[in-house]
Amino acid sequence: PKGEFHGGRPLLEFAGCLPTKQNNDAVLNAITGQMERAPPVSGNHIIILATVSSGEEAKRISDILLERKLIACASIVQDVRSFYWWKGEVEHSSELLLVMKSRGELLEEIVRLVRENHSYEVPEVVALPVVGGNPDYLRWIEESVEIHRKGDTS
Questions:
Q1: Is there a contact between 61 and 117 (Cβ–Cβ < 8 Å)?
Q2: Torsion angle, CA of 63/108/135/15, rounded to 10 degrees?
Q3: Against a cut of 0.85, is the pTM above it?
Q4: For residues 125 and 7, what is the distance between their CA atoms, to the nearest angstrom?
């Protein structure tokens, strides 16, 4: 119902979402941080994105990183169309996108290995912080990768 207030705040309406009290309570709780909190996980999880030229290249890079326990998972998104500037010209390419899950402490080594095993002169390798998620999944990421300390040769 338009114009109704909850806790001194107007009800929020979203496209495709009926403005029910339950929907609005969930949105307000999420915005104000009043949602139920799961037990904490370490909080240094990252998503790494890298575009590649072929399925073979995606598999090769994923295998290298998985074998070294630098990533917990790699997903391959096919049929990515990229439009970008390269050497003064606008280029159009069909690519695949690797979406990899790991920990921030491992990013430097991940970037180094992707660059060494990539066909592009300047490969895209970017990391995004994970600000939350399923605590069980985040713990699985932690358990799946190995953090190597400087000077550790194992």
A1: yes
A2: -90
A3: no
A4: 45
Token pair of 33, please? 């941080």
pLDDT tens for the chain, 154 residues long, are 444 444 444 433 333 334 444 445 554 555 555 544 544 566 799 999 999 999 999 999 999 999 999 999 999 999 999 999 999 999 999 999 999 999 999 999 999 999 999 999 999 999 999 999 999 999 999 999 987 655 554 4
CB 96 within 8 A of CB 67: no
Say how far apart CA 150 and CA 87 lie, in whole Å. Answer: 37
E-only strand ranges, 42-123? 45-52, 73-86, 89-103
Neighbours of 106 (CB within 10 A): 22
Q: Distance between CA atoms of 107 and 113, rounded to whole angstroms?
A: 10
Phi, psi (degrees; rounded to nearest 5) at 140: -60, -40
